[in-house]
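Example with several molecule types.
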Amino acid sequence: MIEEKSLKNKLFSLPGLIVAVVLVAAIALPLVISYFNLPPYQIHVFIVGYYFAILASSWALLAGYAGQFSFAHMAFMAIGAYTAGILGQQLGTNVITGIIIGTVMAGFWGFLIGVLCLRLRRTYLALFTIAFSEILRLVLNAERQVTGGPDGMSFNPLVAGTTSNIPPYYIHLALLIGVLIFMYALANSRFGLFWRSIREDEEAAAAMGVHVVRYKVMVFVITAMIAGLAGAVHWHYVSIVTPNDLLIRQMSIVITMAVIGGIESLIAAALGAIVIQYGLEFMRPLGSWRLVVFGLLLMVTLRFFQNGLLYPLLQRLYRRGAEAETVAKRQVASEP
Amino acid sequence: MILELKNIGKHFGGLQVLQNVDLAIEEPQLIGLIGPNGAGKTTLTNIMDGVYKPNEGEVWLKGERVDGKKPYEIARRGFGRTFQVTRAFRRMTVMENMLVPAMALHPGAKKREVMEKAYGVLEFLTIEHLVNEYGRGLSGGQQKLLELGRLLMLDPDIIILDEPFAGVHPKLQETIYEYINKARTEGKAIVLISHDMGSIFALSERLVVLDFGQVIADGHPDEVKTNPAVIEAYLGKDEEEENLA
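Resulting structure tokens for the full complex:
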């Protein structure tokens, strides 16, 4: 008989408790920082960490779950950010409207790129999306009157009337939690099942009745919208965005965060982003050497831990029962 | 009529792979499809399931013309296949593998019920103890069984089994025999492609032989076995005979 874990069981399991502890710690963090009179910059580091966590986890959904190795994720982020910025600066729309339209615009471009990339796989998909990102960056650089060109585009503040970074902290945290819950629900629904079957073998998935085209485009649109949403919110907080923020190097950082965390897990990719962002700040006294450490960590991960550094730990927690059950059943099956 | 191929032709560039292939499956029966390597068996299967579009001819499935339709559309209309090289979803658990076709076919189905059905199928295939194992953790034979299990979840009217016995342990082969018998008693048409002549002759009610992209024989296995064209295709022409010609 099949034993499907109930929601209650999941919540009170060890992984559920760990998630709860991390959540409480994240909510309490600004209070702890102000209680110990630590510099508010610490809060900023976590805000940037949450921004990267949204990008890394949504890229993990696209690449780790659906197998679409796109390098256009930062481009979708920039489309969301610049759309919101242009609307705010040129048309005077409010922040929320700008964020919503920026998100939709990123989804629209995700749809276009998804349709254009349908028949492209691996290297070709990567090259196509790199080309798209570079073209976008050059256009943003060239269109000075609209985008501000290399000088960047300024934004209205995310929260008007305060310079404290505590409200933006909670906005970013809420956004990260909301996005993770949404993606987790998708990944555990039939959509996630179909995305993973497409990642494994498109032809076999189609032979099993999976509408490959529909689900590939769908994952592009959803992840592009999430990236666009993250961009639109975050750059309102930072208050200025430049085309350099979608350099291929920025995309590489997002990919590295997801890879080191583990691209087959949304939570692991998000945690990877936060840990690495904090680690990079912690190592700031090392100057450029911190990037060397970062690079070495990536190389070690790719060579020895292809499932990432955090994902195997999480998987060990989640699949503890499953492995024991399989071993027991194997023994029973092999008995005469 | 379950499946009908009418005058199928397929070429890749200048290479004619299939020519004037006619095949009609009017009732649920077990048909063996054999032919030497390169005869066009897999290409024909790929045309049936929509991976390739034929250059000439038509494919009809249960009274509906399906050539030009996408593989997922054909699968949803009752066509199931396995692949020559096993294509289990390796980074998904056995249960997840089983859920894919069922959820694709019945989007509104309750997961719990689908899982119960999948577990029953896995029990029949004797791999229920691997339900939480990843596809990559299964042996080659177990992966073949998993592919067959996925087909039962798709519940097609016609099943193409491409080399189901290749590289499979004799004990697991017995399970595959049972699977084929079960599918037959459930009224499914089965096309069995295999180089294992013992199995083909033991199981088939009808045998179709392809050679150089053409059907050279189609009939009862006992008739086909003695057909000179078939003997020539497999054993080659007698040298003396060739000289006389």
